[in-house]
Records
---
Amino acid sequence: MTALSILDLAPIPSGGTAGQALRNSIDLAVKAEQYGYRRYWVAEHHFARGVASAAPAVLIGLVAAATSRIRVGSGAVQLGHQTPLSVVESFGLVDALYPGRVDLGIGRSGQRRAELAAEAPPPPSTEARVVDGLLIPPPFDYSFLVKHPQLRHQIALLQQPGAQTPDFADQIDEVVAFLDGTHQAPAVPGEGARVELWILGSSGGQSARVAGERGLPFAANYHVAPSSVLEAVEAYREAFKPSAALAEPYVIVSADVVVAGTDEQARELASPYGLWVRSIRRGDGAIPFPTPEEAAAFTWSEQDRALVQDRLDTQFTGSPGTVVERLETLRRVTGADELLVTTVTHDHADRVRSYELLAKAWEGRK
């Protein structure tokens, strides 16, 4: 049976605090273990008033301490902001206390942002397509976002003055060398750690190729970049070479999900999602997640709608049966070996309930 896992951003609700969000995440991880989820990953986000997951390794350690079986990890640590040594030492420290449960998911968003800033924007497109039941929306143009003055300032704050990010493939090779003890300098803790190394990617570019060529498991982002999920998994599988870690390709695919007792209730809980995505794509960072009432009071322009439409169209909301059917389609079309579910609602109880309903429906499906 295809396993379900969780990606958590430690969302801060409107009127809430970072401390509350972090306590909610730890509580959700405990519940997720009871519900049978395989992994509990936390994201890395900075300068966002609505997200508390700025330091994945720290939060992973807290989650590991509160649980006993579920795998804990990052989705994903951004190597553009840290050295391979610092990442291996941080995750090696957690593994030293909770051996065999830690996943080190790595992304290349820092390097990718620089590439996007230099690239020509994608050709305008209004055509979505449906592949065997799975909606593939038009690509979103990120070029204006990465050139946003505020974001450029924030990127500079994440690195030491004058620092330059090495090539992603070289960084991954260095991470592997530190973990397996072949690096000329020892990483303590970290060397010999039973950490499972993952690469996360949103396209068929370097992340997918590096994951395949190094024989590592790969996570593809349908929830962030739904337009390119198929090319991402295809590029990974085409590049795959067996390794000590994997004999065959292994893919996990993410999805935004909100589950409730009925389709109508789920749509109500998910109604603030568009406003939340809007704040991210305008370059303001994720706002504290609004209530449905706050979202209903917002007046949308056509430009605002266009900014978030692909994410709204690819969010899986509904009753357990409705969402299970859509997740089955995602699994079938992408060939995913595992699915990574991320759910954000204003009230923590609704988020916990969504994961509980989904786990029961997924396990009970025929």
Note: The two ends are 11 Å apart (CA to CA).
---
Amino acid sequence: MITVRVPAKVNVQLGVGGLRADGFHDLANVFFAVALGDEVTASESSEGVTLSCSGPDAASVPLDDSNLAARAARLLAAHHGIADPGVHLHIAKAIPVAGGMAGGSADCAAALVACDALWKLDTPVETLLELAAELGSDVPFALVGGVALGRGRGEILEPLAVSGTFHWVFAVAEGGLSTPAVFRECDRLREEAGTGSSDTDVPTPDADPALVTALAEGDAVALAAALANDLQPAALSLRPALAATLRAGTEAGALGALVSGSGPTCAFLVKDADAATAVAEALRASGTCRTAHATYGPVPGASAAS
């Protein structure tokens, strides 16, 4: 039995380019791994690839072959010529489901690491990253963690320097948001604004130098000022109530706020651990979210739980 812990992510910058001919968008995606995470336990099974799940959002997690963790186990087995893989994967959820924090991708990465260890395959990290990119744009980052700039669809990673620890609060909304739907709304809003939405209309995004410097210097105030998410207008268009959540966290003392990824989870950067506790309590009392979690980062990617 192998248990792997894997972090959630927040996109401290999510720059979205125009719609490409293949249906994707070029991204400048600055991933930041936080201590809020899931655990995936792999154990031997004679019944093929099976899944179970526990945690607050367990009922929303599919337990069939559509689950990315199951797909990860099958892809790893196929890569090594294992015709009939047997593994049971138990997912202990803490990352919100469909919340813009890459919980499904995190579980996928954890399943790769857990199955690799259970089956004693010793797959090179480079190969695991290639398999991860086949499974989803956010999966490679969940393997490596820390802070990184993701280009392309987000799967081409460049580690970024970071100093110290940053403290965060995440406000979890009722229900989820579909990532494809948020990207479609982003394109629609751009067309409505008259700027166009194709990759010939929208410049290819790049990392904000001020944000990169703030991370490297461990400057929370400067990082808060540089937080940016090109999908936030689309998420707010589809879920207008998120504006009240962002306002509640800011009024409670957060240095900066943004929708995490495609939403609907909202992320708040705060001064220190005490401020995180206070902002989380204020958000829970505000009635603008289902719950709120105080956490910190950056932390490493998927790794065996101690």
Note: The CA atoms of residues 6 and 20 lie 31 Å apart.
---
Amino acid sequence: MTGPTVEQAITRAHQEEWARLVAGLTRRFGDLDVAEEATAEAFVAAAERWPRDGVPPSPGGWLATTAARKAIDRLRRESQRDAKHQAALIVRDDTPPDPTGPVEDDRLRLIFTCCHPALASEARVALTLRLLGGLTVAEIAHAFLVSETTMARRITRAKAKIKAARIPYRVPSADDVRERLAGVLAVVYLVFNEGYLASEGDDAVRVDLTDEAIRLGRLLRTLLPNHGEVTGLLALMLLTDARRPARVSRTGELVTLDEQDRGAWDRALVAEGRALIRERVEAVAAGGDPPGRYQMQAAINAVHMDAPSARDTDWSTIAALYGRLVLLDPSPIVRLNRAVAVAEVDGPGVGLAEVDRLAKVLDGYHAFHAARADLLRRLGRGGESRAAYDRAIGLAGNPAERAYLTRRRDQLAG
């Protein structure tokens, strides 16, 4: 087998098996460090052996067996007493434990473990993205808008905290699920976003991550079918993913919502997402809890997708929905999105004034400069627009997005 083919097999196995291996080893050995390092060592072994011996018939099975052996070897090396004896016992008993709680999927169990309340909120999300999503530290840092060094320290501290506090890997109770749900939803959504427009690498979209996030979203909805935010997040991901076929052009350039071929959208996903939103509207009307941030974002997406064309978009409703969302989530990125909607209603000058208020906190975020560039272009301020496009291009990690921004910059007069 040729080198590139083996490389592709390893890449695909990493995308499909990483989370399953880490979660399964964590259940079996009860140690996050052991699970992650043994999984990583298994992939190193694959990179060494598969080019020589060929890709095995079952790559996932080969990796699982190798990772388990690596974990046992580490435990034996680290202790001549209890851990060694425990490892020897584990070798003879591969039967999965009986389910004792509401979460039956190893990967979801691991998410809830990483989202333990003893950890800071950002650490929970970052650690789970690393262990479950298999995202690199650089990708996670991009999602959090912090430096790679800062994120590496955060993940290391989180793992040390789990070990020091002796936080167990166990099936969470119903109370645990509700207590940690906000962190779990944040994890799933960040995994989805990283897949929908990858921050690094040559691929504009990482379908493995978007599909995994939606799969986890469906499992969460099965677990908590009446929870509004669980339903809202799933609806949001489905409506967003429905646009994926129209998201990147044949030449590899990002296609923004206003330029997309709406006929290429996945109608089945659109219908499913809209049905979930209708379900939540009816539940709220019947006296249920008011909508949270994911339900509001899903509603905003639905308004966009209800318009037969970009010029028919009901921007007044979208701006009003963003106004309500800011009350729930006053983060700079939500405020940036609201400013873009305000610009469509009240004009680019008003929108730019709102965008510029976020300059200090969002200076390292490419979408901030892209929004400024577009508003400056509409105001006829070509030189300033070009500079803003240059800044956005320099910060954008996705090749499709860089291609789009470059084209827009090059279309400026002069």
Note: The two ends are 53 Å apart (CA to CA).
---
Amino acid sequence: MSKAIVLAAAFTAVLAPAALAQAPAGDRWTIIHAGAVLAVPGTPARGKTSLIIKNSLIQELKDGFVTADSIGAPAQAVTVVDLSDRYVLPGLIDSHVHITSERARDSELQRVKKTGENVALDGVVYARRTLDAGFTTVRDLGSRGAPALALRDAIRKGQVPGPRIVAAGQSISATGGHSDTNGFAPDVFPELGENICNGREQCRHAARNQIKRGADVIKITATGGVLSNTAAGTGKQMFDDELEGVVEAAHAMGRKVAVHAHGADGVNAALRAGVDSIEHGTYLTDESIALFKKSGAYLVPTVLAGATVVRMADEEGFLPPAVRDKARQVGPLMLDMLGRAYRGGVKIAFGTDTGVSEHGKNAEEFALMVKAGIPADIAIRMGTVDAAELLDLSKQIGTLEPGKAADVIAVASDPAKDITELQRVLFVMSNGRVHKAAPAKVAAKP
């Protein structure tokens, strides 16, 4: 049996029957009766509202609960979803995930044992968990090989369930940098080539090569990182001309540039080079904040990753010594960093670095954002409206308005009053299709 047939069979095995069903012929309408709707995060919520959806797009929001026969559609083509006692809001957006991997005690061993097919199927599982958790869009910032790109395409075609994916392909790194294959024998991982660059021209080529392979966004690792198995610290690892080369090539071809950066020297150099977002930003300074505001770049804080690596460092044998030491240094600083950035007026988009933490638990970042001093309603806006802007998808997602994708979630009550409600998403619709139905209501006892 061919590898392609085996892989196709494996994909089919993990799909829900609903995902495999053929779409009905003709147009279809859905009416959602919502108890409250946060249509545009950052503005007041509406009361009882009907969301009218045609196929994959929102058509209209009407006050009160309208009937199926009032929208002028054939009765047999209309489905009414009862969320009359739920709080409804746009699908959430995570601007920093690694959709095909998840950190574990044996991650280094798995890196040399898993085939590309294994990695792709892991991604199918993680994508479903992510969508179950209410995240209808994610930005995948660096995955091994091509599986994340293939997963993105399969989700777009409706072949597998998962969030909309904006994918970076492989992260671009200097030789020996955070995204190189550090800690392995040279003959285990031959020279990667296409994502490793040194000098301006090579780095231009590396960016172009990722675009050639299908990248929607370019990811650079400008500084050392916590989870690279090398005692190289978390300071700047790419020279100014290398950063500029990537940015020039990416922007010339219509791609934004996201930059992994912990040390302030790397943060500031990347901002001066014209990048579009800084991921992590742990050691940012007042100069960094001024550069953020001057450039208009976003900070994607990933505080959940910081909290996660601290827990890993406390488990004996979970992390190699070089990684453990960096985790203990960097993790505790990220909450304070986020608070300073917010107070300083930096634009912030929600992002978790999930894949370090567990897929499906992305919403735990919201509680950490609130702990850092960000009001809950603003944190929700950062995970919808602002993240959509960073991803250049504001015309499609981030709010519940006519003409936008019907990415809709529901929770039991207002998450601005209890941000942990976003960890308990009850209903998920993606592109007008119900992925997760709200639990049935229990009838009151007589």
Note: The chain has a mean pLDDT of 87.
